Amino acid sequence: LTAGPTFEAIDPVRGITNLSSGKMGFAIARAATEAGAAVTLVAGPVALATPAGVTRIDVKSARQMHDAVLPLAASHDVFIATAAVADWRPADAAEHKIKKAPGQGAPALLLVENPDILAAVAVLPKRPYCVGFAAESHEVEQHARAKLVRKNVPLIVGNLGPATFGQDHNALLLVDAVGTRALPHADKLTLARQLVAEISSRLNA
Ligand code: CTP
């Protein structure tokens, strides 16, 4: 499982990140452990306690998350990519804090693309069952369906990012090649348990 945001350094004191709290991913880690799974949770910078029984690896950046996940992925049966991975990072993080030079305006930030962790796991020869998330601001189903195809995974879980980031509640849309199933508004642990049950029934089918 991946969870939380990533943090992409601009300099030693600044960076680019997003509003993901990690709560949904941590709830899934807890629900999966409760269901009997051995869970490895690769977490971006979040202020959350590790659920009992979960093996946690803390990372900061997307590249660190990628490097933590890839060697472990093939030895797991399921990969759930809950993290809101930063799509881009500053091309060169400054070694020292960038100082404001009066009258010189703002520095230009050149961004480069981060590796797509889910897509990288999905092309492994011994790939786990891959579940992606789509945190959208609008048209959740259409975007989730596009990601299903683009990332070549069997299941995408859509949700409204701005409505759920940091909250204890969410609503999920399970999108696969066959159709769409809504898991209505509930607390994140309830939704996590429903999602784990769904994944488990797919594995046993
Ligand atoms: N993801 C990932 N690595 C990335 C970007 C995304 O593993 N570098 C995963 C997320 O964890 C999520 C899924 O891919 O499970 C979709 O992420 P999202 O950011 O919604 O999709 P993107 O492909 O980045 O598309 P966009 O930002 O344009 O919506």
Task: Describe the structure in your own words.
- There is one protein chain.
- With 205 residues, the chain is of the alpha/beta class.
- The chain has six helices and twelve strands.
- The chain has helices spanning 23-34, 62-73, 117-122, 140-150, 161-164, 188-204, and strands spanning 2-3, 8-11, 14-16, 40-43, 55-58, 78-81, 88-90, 111-113, 129-136, 155-160, 169-175, 180-187.
- A five-stranded mixed sheet has the order 6-9-10-11-12.
- Strand 2 and strand 3 (14-16) form a beta hairpin.
- Helix 1 (23-34) packs across helix 6.
- The chain is globular.
- Cytidine-5'-triphosphate (CTP) is lined by residues 2, 62, 81, 83, 85, 87, 114, 116-118, 132-135, 147.
